[in-house]
Write a sequence for this structure.
């Protein structure tokens, strides 16, 4: 902070640019209006000269304050404020009132900007808000990419599962067909024995039937797992269908009942085949080959049905695989890779020095985003070779999620810092406002004490007194705008729910005081309203200081 320069500029700003009503009232006194403008120009010139000297003095002891003064002087030069002050004076001397008002209005805005620049009040907050906005945008982009990568990884994982499932189905189908072939062969051997056969002829066949039964029972058990896998894959596919994002229901096959398998399932058919084989084995053990043929035929029929059911399941799996073409997966992965690469470059660019040479901070999550790119490239390469890339995609997803976490952590720190800066800026703003309000209150009281003694013959206020009341009203309106700006800060930061209502009340109270003064009311009601504004400002300042102290103590 540069207190002396700021105090001078604040006094100059609040006194500068007589409001239009007052200026209109002085149209019959062009010399007086021009003289005031000449005085304003002289004071501003004195201010800039003091700023120049102070800047040199502070170069070693307070280099940051010196830089701030330098920036302020550069702003004065760029805006050609001295020349515009002189121009306003010339326009007043020529009684070109409307043109003078326009020039003076623009000057007042630039003076307010210069005040903010010297106070460095908004600059730090602006930089913080810009940094938060930038990192928030990066976080959202990372989050979107992580979601895309997750979807692509799930597609790849589903492809891999379908491929494995299809391989299992084909293997089980071959196993079923092998059992079917052996059962047919055994049936032919049994048929050759006729009605009756010796024990030495039926015993080997019974042993073979028992062996087939054991293999078929194992097949039936294995097929239960295959069916559960098939049901899960179908349920996952159903959940992923458009228009069914919340459908988490699973077909009945996904939850087979305990005990014997369902008769219509692959495992159920294989189980029935095993049961028929068991009956045939008993008949053969009892040397009754002819009756066993019926059971063997039943086993053959159930094994055929098992093979057919497995082929249907395999065909379903092939259709699902067609919905996940590798070419499309590779294309999507490349798109995500390109977007991730673009993001990494944008994050790197954000670290470059700013326009005024200020050093930028490292971008959180940048390295993890960069690490995801080669993994995504490798995943796309695998997919182009018709190979699922689940692991590479999982690794890239983890990198992106880690980058998002780093950004979230940094954003949390910046928001805490913003909160601290807002509290300090508000305390500073309200302290300055309180000092100005006390000046206005004192001036109002003095003016009111003398106004009854200087009424005109008609009972009206003299023009000079009316102008002074208008200036006081303008001062209160300026404070009202200050309160409105403070409210914007609170809205951007959402520091606490306590302060906004109080600042809203302050803004409204200042507006009411300004209205009273504009109506040329300077008596007790106006002075009481001004004291209430002072009390509210003191309350706000004390509350802010206590909040800052608590935060500094870690409470």
């Amino acid at each position: 902070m540069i207190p002396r320069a700021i105090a001078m500029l604040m006094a100059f700003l609040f006194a500068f640019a007589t409001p239009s009503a007052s200026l209109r009232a002085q149209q019959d006194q062009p010399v007086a209006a021009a003289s005031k403008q000449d005085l304003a120009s002289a004071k501003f010139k004195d201010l800039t000269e003091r700023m120049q000297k102070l800047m040199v003095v502070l170069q070693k002891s307070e280099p940051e304050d010196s830089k701030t003064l330098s920036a302020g002087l550069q702003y004065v030069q760029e805006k050609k404020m001295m020349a515009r002050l002189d121009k306003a004076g010339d326009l007043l001397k020529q009684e070109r009132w409307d043109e003078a008002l326009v020039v003076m209005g623009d000057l007042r805005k630039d003076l307010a900007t210069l005040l903010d620049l010297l106070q460095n009040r908004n600059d730090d907050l602006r930089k913080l808000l810009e940094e938060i906005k930038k990192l928030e945008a990066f976080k959202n982009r990372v989050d979107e990419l992580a979601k895309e990568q997750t979807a692509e990884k799930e597609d790849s994982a589903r492809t891999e599962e379908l491929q494995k499932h299809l391989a299992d189905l084909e293997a089980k189908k071959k196993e079923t067909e092998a059992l079917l072939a052996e059962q047919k062969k055994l049936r032919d051997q049994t048929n050759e024995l006729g009605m009756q056969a010796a024990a030495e002829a039926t015993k080997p066949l019974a042993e073979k039937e028992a062996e087939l039964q054991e293999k078929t029972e194992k097949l039936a058990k294995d097929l239960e797992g295959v069916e559960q896998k098939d049901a899960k894959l179908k349920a996952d596919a159903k959940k992923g269908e458009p228009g069914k994002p919340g459908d988490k229901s699973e077909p009945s096959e996904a939850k087979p009942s305990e005990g014997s398998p369902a008769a219509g399932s692959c495992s159920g058919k294989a189980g029935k085949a095993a049961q028929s084989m068991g009956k045939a084995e008993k008949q053969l053990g009892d040397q009754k080959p002819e009756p066993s043929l019926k059971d063997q035929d039943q086993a053959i029929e159930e094994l055929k049905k098992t093979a057919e059911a497995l082929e249907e399941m395999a065909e379903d799996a092939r259709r699902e695989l067609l919905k996940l073409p590798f070419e499309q997966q590779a294309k999507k992965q490349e798109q995500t890779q390109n977007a991730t690469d673009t993001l990494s470059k944008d994050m790197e660019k954000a670290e470059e020095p700013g326009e005024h040479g200020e050093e930028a901070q490292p971008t959180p999550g940048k390295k993890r985003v960069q690490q995801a790119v080669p993994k995504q490239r490798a995943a796309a390469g695998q997919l182009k070779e018709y190979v699922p890339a689940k692991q590479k995609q999982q690794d890239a997803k983890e990198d992106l999620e880690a980058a998002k976490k780093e950004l979230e952590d940094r954003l949390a720190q910046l928001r805490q810092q913003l909160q601290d800066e807002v509290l300090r800026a508000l305390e500073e703003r309200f302290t300055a406002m309180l000092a100005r309000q006390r000046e206005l209150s004192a001036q109002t009281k003095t003016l009111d004490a003398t106004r009854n003694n200087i009424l005109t013959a008609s009972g009206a206020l003299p023009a000079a007194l009316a102008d002074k009341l208008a200036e006081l009203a303008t001062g209160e309106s300026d404070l009202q705008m200050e309160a409105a700006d403070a409210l914007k800060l609170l809205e951007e930061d959402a520091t606490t729910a306590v302060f906004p209502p109080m600042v809203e009340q302050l803004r409204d109270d200042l507006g009411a005081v300004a209205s009273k003064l504009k109506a040329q009311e300077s008596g007790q009601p106006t002075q009481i309203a001004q004291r209430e504004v002072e009390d509210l400002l003191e309350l706000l300042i004390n509350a802010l200081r206590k909040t800052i102290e608590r935060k500094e103590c870690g409470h």
